[in-house]
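User: We ran a pulldown and think these components assemble together. Before we commit to crystallization trials, I'd like a predicted model of the whole complex to look at. Sequences follow.
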Amino acid sequence: MVLDILAGFVYSIIVYNIPLLYGTVGEILNEKAGSLNLGVEGTMAVGAIFGYLLGCRTDSLFLGILTAAAAGALCGLLFAFFTVTLQANQNVTGLTVTTLGLGVYYFVAHAVHSRSNWPMMQDCPSIVKGFSEIHIPLLSDIPYIGKAFFSHNLFIYLGIFLAVLVWWYMKHTTAGLRMRAVGENPGAADSCGVNIPRSKYLHITAGCAIMGVGGYYMALHINGEYLASSGWINGYGWIAVALVIFANWNPARAILGTFVFGIFKALEVYAGSIAFAFPALFGWLKAVPPKVFTALPFLITALVLVLSSARRSKKSNQPAAIGVNYYREDR
Amino acid sequence: MADAFAIELKNIKKSFGAVAANRNINLSLRQGEILALLGENGSGKTTLMNMLSGIYRPDGGEIFVNGERVDIASPEDAKRLGIGMVHQHYRLVEVFSAADNIWLGRNCPKYPFREKLKSVCAEKKGWRRLTAGGKVLVCGAGAAFSERLLRKKRYQEVEKICSAFGFSIDPAKKVYNMAVSEKQTLEIVKVLYYGARIIILDEPTAVLTVQETEKLFEVLRRMKAEGHSIIIITHKLNEVLAISDRVAVLRKGEYVGTVETAEANEQMLTDLMVGHRVDLNIERPVVEKKKPLLEIRNLTVRNDEGVRAIDDVSFYIRGGEILGVAGIAGCGQRELCEAIAGLRKIESGEMVHKGENIVGLMPREIIEKGISMSFIPEDRLGMGLAPSLSITDNMLLKTYKTGSRPFSPFVDRRRGRAEAARIIEELGVVTPSTETPVRRLSGGNVQKVLVGREIQSGPNVIVTAYPVRGLDIHSSYAIYDILNRQKESGVGILFVGEDLDVMLALCDKIMVLCHGRVMGIVHASKTSKEELGLMMTGTLNLVRDDADAGKKTGIARDTNIREDDVR
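Assistant: Here's a predicted model for the assembly, 898 residues in total across the polymer chains.
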């Protein structure tokens, strides 16, 4: 019984943390190339709405993912065009992308919903099937552990795979090395013959495509239910920005970081059960109103941002040239 | 083509906004020679060289490399043409290892699949063609892929490159752990590894010690012997005469001429550079010295890492004298200056200004007491001036609370502008207007503004560190002159310097620091460069506790001062 609850708890932590992982990994790609993209929230929203609508219309999960990635990439291209080509301020542009993305999201969602042809996820059998848990022979059958770690849907494995892939790419390829150099000291990279605009465009776009897929996952996770007020992303994009710092710009560590944040989200549902399973240790959880757990990730986000920016450390992996546009002839 | 010039510039023009940085420059670099490029600050040397390295594009004129007309649109083009530049501010990624910094610009070999595929297909028949073709594709793609991976072997390879060029660098060492000279070596190796035959060095000796400079020159001579053509920018005339074959001189963006080094001397080069005769002697006016203005007793200060940067240091500065502080980089000069200005916490000790302890006072209170500090860090702008603000605003930074309207919420811009205009005129600052942001000025002019502002406030103690760092002769002498005039008016000056020749000529006494400890305070007229050098490295320590007399020896005393004036 206790183990059942624990397995369910871990399972739901993972379910909740994965969209954050997409956002975080995407943002790490942006930031490591020297671009502080604050448009995560908007990019995820745009990916979510277009991915969901198109995926449901065609009843294809694959097309949905592709659309979400493309929509996210488009947001990335917009950001790159403004900050790299036009040398606009990155903070302002990022906030603009968020505002614009959320605007597009609400506009499209409302327009479709008000004409009452909002697609229902349960009417799309192949999406429901594709989004259902994948049964891995042997691994999924391990008692408890199988339930907690090896009976998830496609997006969860894809997210972890992407995080590891990005980590490997940054650490072990020449292109990753060049991209990090662009984020650290564009002047040095330039004098070595690295094409800076190309590198920035490439990594911003790829990172934003990943964010878009994360948004799509969030849409599917709540069955594509139309939300008039809060929206699907609901601040997760901002948590992702903070998680980048929490993960110290390391995609592999981001897996762990998102897991920690997922705990609070999962507690919203599991607080009662945990209190029941461990009355001595966590009995007090019963007394905490569930809304506190909804607010906790945001509170901790704020704390992480404040503390990490107050602490100056040599060990921090923050790219030195983050937020600074590079113009070769600048004096 | 053998005797074509390595580089030939014809009528090169470049302007930034309304300011013409280069006007019709003609310059030629012979194969296998070392050409020194000489000019005052802001004469357009770096701009010109940046056009060769692809950072800037010329507005007009032609560039020939090895006799061929070329268009250098980017650093990559320059790299392809075999031109490498070692910038004054090193272009290295601090958090990368030496090997990764070199690897960054490595050209991955291309795998010409198509040709190989064609030849394989022509040889083989039938299904063998298919398998062989597939093998070519898979192996080629695999090789191309693995070539783009970062392997451990890159460390060995970089080490091999270094030893091939005769350098020793630890390839795994991170750049932020390197000393300045190591970084420079890395930059040179990088440039050589990219296959440069023409090497440009922008003020390579500005941050090096005498020994390191000598080492660098040996490297340059060796590179020259191997057939490389080198352009070196430097302000130091003795270096120009020591290393170069020819000297090209620029003045205010214009090309003055080129002379054979063998036929040149310091005076002649200075005159060419400045355009009129300059007296190369530094004067040391004798001023009747007053009582100590500032006394430092047993001062101990820790640096940012928590290590003792200043360890039990005592000295005093009197009105009408310049006390020089000599020492190798990082011996505690910076921390000493910061402590005096109230910017750094003092662990123990006293600082007495006119009989009043100033330990623990706010920087503003210290300024109001008449102690001014101007510290010129390596990047010149780091301390003292706000780069994006105009000269006027920078003037106001220190005086907004004093003067005509001390309690007004509004700043007196008119007064600030007048002060700015006065400094511009008196010190000969080259600037379009008083409202130009300071970062747009060239290094020498920035320093004049900083020193000028410090003097403007009418201090009685001036702490100045590296006021002539990176400055050309003309500006340096202007600054020495300013300091001497202040000294004559009874101001006490603490001068942290790096050029021993200058310190010997300018200072009255010189204090030598080594690892935060005083190695001795000597009269400038009674010491030598060699003695100072030994003290700087800690080989010679003049300070000894004389048990009999109950006082320390090795500290120069002034005869017209009684013991109880200085405890």
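Chain A has a mean pLDDT of 90. That may be worth checking against your pulldown data before setting up trials.

User: Thanks, that helps.
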